[in-house]
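This follows on from our talk about sequence and fold. I would like you to pick a protein and set down its sequence and fold. Go ahead and set the record down below:
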Amino acid sequence: MAYRNLSAVDADAQVRHGRLTLVDVRPPEERAIAAVAVDYAALEGGGLEKLMALPKDTPLAFLCHHGGRSAQAASYFAQQGFTDVYNVVGGIDLWAMTVDAAIPRY
């Protein structure tokens, strides 16, 4: 099972309605520069283990700066048996342009 692409606008709406777990795969120093204003998970500090323990049908969307690292993470989780996996196209950069202009671009 492969991942699917998801727009930032759709990801934002689904997270706000509790239908999607957003995972920001960027390191803490990048998230300190620019972060989304919705709940999200991270991979460090035991985050990867917590995500791996979720039911395999949990909807997961991965976010990075422009979409490359998040696509790799989405592919990895799909390979681990997760069945509802998304890559947020354009990453936080496109999110800042289409969802929340208050997010700094870098």
